[in-house]
Design a protein that fits this description.
Structural class: alpha/beta
Largest sheet: 10 strands, mixed
CATH architecture of the largest domain: 3-Layer(aba) Sandwich
Strand content: 15-25%
Shape: globular
CATH superfamily of the largest domain: Mur-like, catalytic domain
Number of domains: 3
CATH class of the largest domain: Alpha Beta
Strand order of the largest sheet: 8-7-9-6-10-11-12-13-14-15
Length: 481
């Protein structure tokens, strides 16, 4: 998608939008934006065909949610907001144009909400949701009351968006459709750059150029943070520094500005020592496991340091970090089987998540219930996705979730399952959604870890798996927490 059709962040504020209607309001990004507007006291409606978990919270805040797409949903509306998942010929889009209403992409509406704030924008192929959440919690712990919009909900807080009174606005910046190029951050954090969304960019070089353009939009008085351990992040830092821009790096690399050492991860969490510019900066601990989570937290620590926030605030916030929903989210235990949900769908993030889950499984087996996300990504990364799934002991594969895409011969999960490096009896492609819970209940045994992983709809599967496992046990042995 060409950002020329988007309006860069400017003087428009959220209040200028009047009565706001969001098409497809149940998606995590749109639901977060709706929550932000509602907590800001603005009138909001939305349309959504599926009853996503986020909708109850929006109704509780005063939002009007329509369960159908109708022209009448736009009665009294001033601004219609859509995401890149909504086709231009959608009924409500066409009606909005016919009525002459203001029509904004989600990123444009979000940019309006940022007007007048110091924006901390977090981008990257992996880890941006967790990193955005960590930065938000550090700012909250420091007492700054930031506004934020995150592509997921902070566990236990139960929210992915909030209108705060402070000067900072923390946002997860989405590169998938180039819309992150309309933001004007004070702080830009780029966790990593790997080949993804090549349906938009064509190749890695063009994708890297877009991240460089995003970084160059950073306020000259602000700064850019990149990962020294990531080849793409390292190349970006070198390019920007050669242009005279302020860039700080983090990671385990010896030349990182914030250097991590003595990283220890277990099923109970992760900890590491940090030093900044060669000086000891303290030990940081997280109650969630995974070296990749430690790396994400280092970005938040470095940003806090550069924003001159107190170190104890960062230590306390990370020490209490509850995780993010759909990122290593514990759904519950039934009949001795522990069930998690995880959003990873790119092979790198899948590998990191499954390696961490392997630690959690211990002597038990790891069973992955995977729904690939987008046909082009599955086709282009089929060997790598299959190799990541091979970390598991057993794999239950659903069909690719690719709304608007046309499956060509030889594409999809029937082809992918053949490449998963497991014996035939330990992997299966299940075409029908309703058949998956029984298949998992047949395979799982006490002591196993089951994870639902991949595209957004699979997040709804975890509760169904717990129900199937509970039914197997005769209705006893449930711990849903």
């Amino acid at each position: 998608m060409n950002t020329a059709q988007f309006t860069p962040a400017g003087t428009m504020t959220a209040e200028d939008l009047g009565r706001i209607h969001l098409i497809g309001v149940g998606g995590v990004g749109m639901a977060g934006l709706a929550r932000l507007f509602l907590t800001r006291g603005l009138p909001v409606s939305g349309s959504e065909l599926r009853e996503w978990p986020s909708l109850a919270g929006l109704r509780a805040l005063g939002g009007t949610i329509h369960s159908t797409h109708e022209a009448s949903n736009l009665d009294g509306v001033d601004t219609v907001v859509y995401s890149s998942a909504i086709p231009q010929d959608h009924l409500e889009m066409a009606e909005a144009r016919r009525r002459g209403l203001r029509v904004l992409h989600r990123s444009e509406a979000l940019a309006a909400a940022m007007t007048g704030r110091r924006t901390v924008a977090v981008a990257g192929t992996h880890g941006k949701t967790s990193t955005t959440s960590m930065v938000t919690m550090v700012l909250q712990q420091a007492g700054t009351d930031p506004s934020f919009v995150i592509g997921g909900e902070i566990s236990e807080v139960g929210s992915g968006a909030h209108h705060g009174t402070g000067e900072h606005f923390v946002v997860e910046a989405d590169e998938s459709d180039r819309s992150f190029l309309i933001y004007r951050p004070f702080v830009s954090i780029i966790t990593n750059i790997e080949a993804d969304h090549l349906n938009t960019y064509g190749d890695l070089a063009t994708l890297e150029a877009a991240f460089a353009e995003f970084a160059r939009l950073t306020d000259p008085a602000g700064f850019v943070v990149t990962c020294a351990d990531d080849p793409g992040g390292r190349r970006l830092a070198e390019t920007l520094r050669a242009e005279g821009r302020r860039v700080w790096t983090y990671g385990e690399s010896a030349d990182a500005d914030l250097r991590m050492s003595e990283v220890v991860s277990s099923a109970h969490g992760v900890r590491y020592q940090a030093e900044i510019e060669g000086r000891a900066f303290g030990e940081f601990r997280l109650p969630v496991p995974g070296r990749h989570m430690a790396l994400n937290s280092a970005a938040a620590v470095l940003a806090a340091y550069l924003l001159e926030l107190p170190v104890p605030a960062a230590e306390a916030a990370l020490g209490a970090f509850p995780g993010v929903r759909r990122r290593f989210e514990r759904k519950g235990v039934a009949d001795g089987v522990l069930v998690y949900d995880e959003y990873a769908y790119h092979p790198t993030s899948m590998t990191l998540a499954l390696q961490t889950l392997r630690e959690v499984a211990g002597d038990g087996r790891l069973i992955v219930v995977f729904q690939p996300y987008r046909l082009y990504r599955t086709r282009d990364n089929q060997a790598e996705i299959a190799a990541a799934l091979g970390i598991a002991d057993e794999v239950v594969l659903l069909e690719v979730f690719g709304p608007g895409e046309t499956r060509r011969p030889g594409e999809g999960s029937a082809a992918l399952i053949q490449d998963v490096p497991l014996p035939a009896e330990r992997k299966v492609f299940v075409e029908a959604w309703d058949d998956v819970p029984a298949e998992v209940a047949r395979r799982a045994r006490a002591g196993d870890v089951v994870v639902t992983m991949g595209a957004p709809p699979i997040s709804l599967m975890g509760d169904q798996l717990l129900d199937a496992l509970l039914a197997r046990s005769g209705g006893t042995g449930l711990d849903a927490g």
